[in-house]
């Protein structure tokens, strides 16, 4: 699936929930389903700067495709990074760099986060794109 198709699917999923409590529960469930990151990647160099919680993000390039793994010590933040990985993992670096993140506004996520979590969200997206730049250069 393309990034745009995944984003549209997420917008549809979020529209099924009646209120933000249900959406938060969905995000928490996404976080619980996030594959466990290997302990070797839970190092300071993989910590995302600008997040109130600890969020580790690791990326690898396999056959021209970026694969991200992540973890967080906060359950909601783990759900947010899981949502982002659903969109950006298993894509080509070029597609990641060209993708917009309007779906976040369309589902209303940013406006329903505390200012510190919203800043963390921006930092997560920035780091995802920085890794894509680095991996595109390597490819």
- The number of helical segments is 6
Overall pLDDT confidence: 95
The order of strands across the largest sheet is 1-2
Q: How many individual β-strands?
A: 2
Secondary-structure content class: mainly alpha
For the largest beta-sheet, the strand count, sense and barrel status come to: 2 strands, antiparallel
- Percent of residues in helical segments? 40-55%
**Using only CA atoms, what is the Rg?**
14 Å
Order of helices and strands: HHEEHHHH
Beta-strand content: 5-15%
Q: Which geometry do the CA atoms define?
A: globular
Distance between the termini: 22 Å
Low-confidence stretches: none
Structure description:
- With 139 residues, this protein is mainly alpha-helical.
- It has six helices and two strands, in the order ααββαααα.
- The chain has helices at 3-15, 20-32, 75-88, 93-98, 102-107, 115-138; strands at residues 55-62, 65-72.
- A two-stranded antiparallel ribbon has the order 1-2.
- A hairpin with a 2-residue loop joins strand 1 (55-62) and strand 2.
- The longest helix has 24 residues, at 115-138.
- It is globular, with a radius of gyration of 14 Å.
Describe, in short, the structure shown:
It contains six helices and two strands. With 139 residues, it is mainly alpha-helical.
